[in-house]
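forwarding from the other thread:

> can someone predict this with protoporphyrin IX containing FE?

sure thing
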Amino acid sequence: MDNTPRLFIKAGLIYALIGALLGITLAVNPSLSHPLRFIHIHLNLVGFMTMMVAGVAYHVLPRFSARTLPWPAGMKYHFILQNVGLIGMVAVQGFGDWKGGPHQAYFIFFAILTGLAFAIMFYNLYFVLSSAEEGPPPTEITGDMKVGPVIDQFPQALKIFIGSGFEALANPTARKTFARVISIDKACEKHGVSSIEFLEKLNKEIFENSSERDEAGSSGQEIQRGEMCEGDTRVGSLITTYITTKAVFEKHYGESCFSCPGQVFETVAQTASMHNVDLELILREINSAIQNELKTGE
Ligand code: HEM
Ligand code: HEM
């Protein structure tokens, strides 16, 4: 499991313990209802329940809809804002009457932080689901398709784009921002690339090569010793060829990663997308592990 969903679940469990302790305190001494009632309710509902749900949803929904969250880094901001907002609201309540006076301004400030956290959660979870309704994958890439979604769906297209003069796409932020709104035709026009030739090359790589690979029973490339890893390298082949790269996957995806049968035939790009991990980042770490392994001759 990725790190931030795990943090959400751990924090949720801690809030549950504190919430239960406060509930018991309230049951023993109901006169503490102010301020403990508000604190008990919100630690349980905003802390425990919402964080548990968010942690599980951030882990499950990208897999469920087979796509990356629209803003993976937003998970971290959500986590920070919700914790700071909740602890702030609870602290202001704990200091006495929050209604009127300066306390209310502080309360509103932390309430807005919590509200922002909820807005990030809404954006990520709502839109990771809405793209799942997109129907079957295309059987041909056409010029009116947007660059970003094509690369998301066919990670092997990235190297064709970069090799054909679209170097800016090596930057993951570019892929998540302007590449989402520009069509292949428009991008070719801007870069002075013939869109007919480019589309022919792209379709050949994606559909002809992948069907050859499908016939061989795999959707990714094998890797041989001495070679470097790319987005379409199969994880199963990679970890048997370079045993030390296993640690990189464990670091990013968690130790349970290798109990998943998918890792044998999925490509590095597919697994990175499923785990909301930046492909360039994990490729850099894998390739540096490969270089070390080759150097030390392990
Ligand atoms: C050991 C566990 C718990 C104990 C002993 C406990 C105890 C209490 C008590 C004594 C009250 C009344 C407070 C008052 O009126 O001043 C209360 C209210 C409340 N508790 Fe808990 N609670 C526990 C767990 C939870 C959990 C897990 C949740 C939510 C997930 C929760 C949500 C609420 C809510 C929403 C209220 C307000 C209900 C209302 O407006 O009438 N509690 N709890
Ligand atoms: C941005 C997040 C939130 C803010 C700023 C907020 C703020 C407040 C405020 C100001 C009150 C009235 C407290 C009073 O009368 O002294 C309240 C009550 C309450 N809130 Fe929230 N809340 C938030 C999120 C939530 C969520 C997510 C839940 C449930 C899932 C929830 C459940 C409740 C309940 C049950 C009460 C009634 C408490 C009572 O009866 O005394 N709140 N909240």
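Residues 3-133 form one domain. thats all i got for now
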